[in-house]
């Protein structure tokens, strides 16, 4: 399978879905908001975008199954290839009119990531990666930075917003990163955070309670851009591990040792 070629087709489907989101943003209002749980928002835009993606990707790779955030496909995992879809990453930003939200789609073969696209809708930036073929933003190659230490790094994170059980550990950790880096940012889209590490806008990103659809495409982007992605304390695969530390590689050990100081499993 030519994963680079496949990622071009994925990018086209993802851009098309992003155009739908852009069009709906013009008329979206808060009466369209539904809730999935405490502070966990969703809307018809998330669900319709997911349906568009599924329909488009079925044509690209008919034998592939789907792991989707909104479950519009039901349980539909296949043996070999599976698309991992977050139709709208940054829903809270979207419903508040804050212009940072993405379409994020990764492709796995068994458990290995082989293609991924994060399309940032408002900036019209398409981040594309394929296994062994590199990472690109609007077809320009991207690379992580060569900043060597945390002290000179800009770090992204995601704040807990539904599960506050680890709040004390998290706030300690946040304080440590604030003291030890150039600064900490909360963009509101994990897919954008990872794409920005790949593009050299952040040196690192960490967040817990993430799902595979938040991170699938972004993990491959960071790796193909020369960076490293692990779980918080171990080097285990972060895709289904719910915790992610992503970095330019050079500041990874310092990030993990900072986490180790404050994070109790
Ligand atoms: C969320 C965003 C956010 C992160 C959350 C995710 P959603 O995804 O990626 O940045 O902090 O953990 O759930 O709900 O907007 O698709
Ligand atoms: Ca998400
Ligand atoms: Ca989402």
UniProtKB/TrEMBL annotation:
<feature type="binding site">
    <location>
        <position position="88"/>
    </location>
    <ligand>
        <name>Mg(2+)</name>
    </ligand>
</feature>
<dbReference type="InterPro" id="IPR022337">
    <property type="entry name" value="Inositol_monophosphatase_SuhB"/>
</dbReference>
<keyword id="KW-0479">Metal-binding</keyword>
<feature type="binding site">
    <location>
        <position position="86"/>
    </location>
    <ligand>
        <name>Mg(2+)</name>
    </ligand>
</feature>
<dbReference type="GO" id="GO:0007165">
    <property type="term" value="P:signal transduction"/>
</dbReference>
<feature type="binding site">
    <location>
        <position position="69"/>
    </location>
    <ligand>
        <name>Mg(2+)</name>
    </ligand>
</feature>
<dbReference type="GO" id="GO:0046872">
    <property type="term" value="F:metal ion binding"/>
</dbReference>
<dbReference type="Pfam" id="PF00459">
    <property type="entry name" value="Inositol_P"/>
</dbReference>
<comment type="similarity">
    <text>Belongs to the inositol monophosphatase superfamily.</text>
</comment>
<keyword id="KW-0378">Hydrolase</keyword>
<dbReference type="InterPro" id="IPR033942">
    <property type="entry name" value="IMPase"/>
</dbReference>
<dbReference type="InterPro" id="IPR020583">
    <property type="entry name" value="Inositol_monoP_metal-BS"/>
</dbReference>
<dbReference type="GO" id="GO:0046854">
    <property type="term" value="P:phosphatidylinositol phosphate biosynthetic process"/>
</dbReference>
<feature type="binding site">
    <location>
        <position position="214"/>
    </location>
    <ligand>
        <name>Mg(2+)</name>
    </ligand>
</feature>
<dbReference type="InterPro" id="IPR000760">
    <property type="entry name" value="Inositol_monophosphatase-like"/>
</dbReference>
<protein>
    <recommendedName>
        <fullName>Inositol-1-monophosphatase</fullName>
        <ecNumber>3.1.3.25</ecNumber>
    </recommendedName>
</protein>
<dbReference type="GO" id="GO:0008934">
    <property type="term" value="F:inositol monophosphate 1-phosphatase activity"/>
</dbReference>
<feature type="binding site">
    <location>
        <position position="89"/>
    </location>
    <ligand>
        <name>Mg(2+)</name>
    </ligand>
</feature>
<keyword id="KW-0460">Magnesium</keyword>
<dbReference type="InterPro" id="IPR020550">
    <property type="entry name" value="Inositol_monophosphatase_CS"/>
</dbReference>
<dbReference type="GO" id="GO:0006020">
    <property type="term" value="P:inositol metabolic process"/>
</dbReference>
